[in-house]
Amino acid sequence: MSGHSHWAGIKQRKGVNDAKRAKIFTRLAKHIVIAAQEGGGNPDTNFKLRMAIDKAHEFNMPKDNIDRAIKRGTGELSSDQIEEVTYEAMGPSTIMMLIKTTTDKKNRTLGEVKTVLTKNGGKFGEAGSAMWNFDQVGAIVIETDGNISIEELEMAAIEAGAKDMKTEEGAFIIFTEPQELQKVQDKLTAAGRKISEANLSYLPKNTVVIDESTREAYNKLLEALDELDDVDEIFDNL
């Protein structure tokens, strides 16, 4: 899906990351705080908050932690303002990147991202330098196995109002207009489909193909960015 997420890596390396549970919970809490800041503390009327809480449940985040994060977002508990900031960059060769972060200290995060890019063959971009090549979409992921019919999923997605869809290894991805994400997700859930992930994503309008040497350099850059606590997801035009 042209996205590189902390959460996918965490799930793949669960045994390794159990010792980092507190750090994971901090990242999850940031998303809950932001959602509550923007739309209030009721997940029944705040879709973004509902998605953030669902993600926290997926990683077994304690209810007390979730409740505290909601109260921080609504102002019942004092805390620093947390913001979502997306940086634009160029990777090795002609790779365009959107680096999505969640931070309570923008200057710190900006400095860390710039340092990692400079040290690993990337270049920080000005506003608009990469964003023009991406469309924002809703993305819904349904995990697949041999017992799930792709044709049935395609029909369910069409009936729910999907814009587009694709199949990847172990996953069926449904794309929606950003404003239609909640409606499509609700319809799929009502139809009995188990959704493993639903969020806003970016799809490239024009893509590039890179050679193996460039791929190795880019993977090194991705790994370095992934180590930054404030980086949530990276989108590219590969």
CATH class of the largest domain, please?
Answer: Alpha Beta
> What is the CA–CA distance across the termini?
10 Å
- Give the total of domains: 3
CATH topology of the largest domain: Alpha-Beta Plaits
CATH architecture of the largest domain: 2-Layer Sandwich
State the helix count: 9
Order of helices and strands: EHHHHHEEHEEHEEHEHE
> What portion of residues belong to β-strands?
15-25%
* Helix proportion: 40-55%
CATH homologous superfamily of the largest domain - what is it?
A: YebC, transcriptional regulation domain
Kindly report the spatial arrangement of strands forming the biggest sheet. 1-9-3-2-4
Account of the protein in words:
It is a single chain. This protein folds into three domains: 72 residues, Integrase, N-terminal zinc-binding domain (Arc Repressor Mutant, subunit A), CATH 1.10.10.200; 80 residues, Alpha-Beta Plaits; 71 residues, 2-Layer Sandwich (Alpha-Beta Plaits), CATH 3.30.70. The strands form two sheets. The protein has a five-stranded antiparallel β-sheet with strand order 1-9-3-2-4. A four-stranded antiparallel β-sheet has the order 6-7-5-8. α3 packs antiparallel against α4. The protein is built from nine helices and nine strands. The protein is an alpha+beta fold and 238 residues long. A hairpin with a 2-residue loop joins β6 and β7.
List strands and helices in order, with pairings.
Blueprint: E1 3-5, H1 6-12, H2 14-17, H3 21-39, H4 47-58, H5 63-74, E2 83-90, E3 96-103, H6 106-119, E4 123-124, E5 134-143, H7 150-160, E6 164-168, E7 171-176, H8 181-190, E8 197-204, H9 212-226, E9 231-236
Antiparallel strand pairs: 1-9, 2-3, 2-4, 3-9, 5-7, 5-8, 6-7
